[in-house]
Amino acid sequence: MHTLLVATHNLGKIREYRSLLADLPLNVTWLDQEGVTLEVEETGTTFVENATLKAEQYANLTGLWTWADDSGLEVDALGGEPGVYSARYGGPGLSDQDRYLRLLAALRELPGAPRTARFRCVVAIAAPGGPIYTVEGVVEGEIVDEPRGEFGFGYDPVFFMPAHSATMAELPPAVKNRISHRGQASANAARLLASLFDHTG
Questions:
Q1: Contact indicator for 122, 72 with CB cutoff of 8 Å
Q2: Regarding the domain delimited by 2-200, which CATH topology (the fold level of the hierarchy) does it fall under?
Q3: What count of Cα atoms within 13 Å lies in the side-chain half-sphere of residue 3?
Q4: Which uninterrupted H or E stretch holds 189?
Q5: Could you tell me which residues come within 8 angstroms of residue 141 by beta carbon, excluding any fewer than 6 positions away?
Q6: Fewer CB within 10 Å of terminal CB in the chain, N or C?
Q7: Greater confidence, 88 or 198?
Q8: Backbone φ, ψ for residue 69 (5° rounding)
Q9: Active centre residues (catalytic)
Q10: Residue ranges per domain, the chain?
């Protein structure tokens, strides 16, 4: 059985990934369980670069196949911002609400500009000292003026999906997890892993 390291300290994420990967012959572990305290600095300018940095460094450090992801919101009128800086938008110490209010304030300074946006997630899978594979998931939407919904986190309350007539924060978690950028990327990564391990034995 292969061991797969998921590059996170978030036990909630691990539970989700273990469920997602339950059909594969994998022992899913995470940084805390492996005693890894190194924090890989996200110095890339794209989601692919950051996910790859984390996957490669943790794989080489631990000798384990490693899964790492990076994700965020891209707003067209803001030139793709906040992008890879989504979790740090506006500086340190801000809450999720502070960040999306700052985003709305920036858009109010651009009257008439399109509100189109997307959530993007990239998953990188690295073999120790070996190749690195990436997959992604994208969900399209638009930014609304007022937050709506009680679910989710981050920018979910202001990200509206016309196809579902709801913001991401208005969708029940089970629905969101299935259609979200992270859900899509994770499903694509699970299929990739199944193919890779089928060939590596």
A1: no
A2: Maf protein (3.90.950)
A3: 12
A4: helix 181-200
A5: 116, 117, 118, 119, 159, 160, 161, 162, 168
A6: C
A7: 88
A8: -135, 160
A9: 70
A10: 2-200
Give the three-class secondary structure for 191.
helix
78 CB-contact burial (10 Å; exposed 0-12 / middle 13-18 / buried 19+): middle
Residue 189: φ, ψ to 5°: -70, -35
Instruction: Give per-residue pLDDT as tens, 23-51.
Output: 888 899 999 999 999 999 999 999 999 99
Closest C-alpha among 100, 135, 103 to residue 121: 135
CA separation for the pair 71, 180 (Å, rounded): 11
Six-digit token string for 41: 């600095």
Alpha-carbon span 79 to 59, nearest angstrom: 33
| pLDDT score of 200 more than 60 | no
How many Å apart are CA 6 and CA 68, to the nearest integer? 6
**AA letter at 47:** F
Taking CA 153 as the corner, what is the angle to CA 11 and CA 175, rounded to the nearest 5 degrees? 85
Using the predicted structure, report yes or no on whether residue 199 has a pLDDT greater than 70.
no
Would you report the helix, strand and coil content of the chain in percent, each value rounded to 5? Answer: 40, 25, 35
CA-based end-to-end distance of the chain: 9
Torsion angle, CA of 193/9/88/167, rounded to 10 degrees?
A: 60
Return the CA Rg of the chain: 18
Question: Can you tell me the distance from the alpha carbon of 127 to that of 4, in angstroms, rounded to the nearest whole number?
Answer: 10
**Structure tokens given for 141:** 């939407």
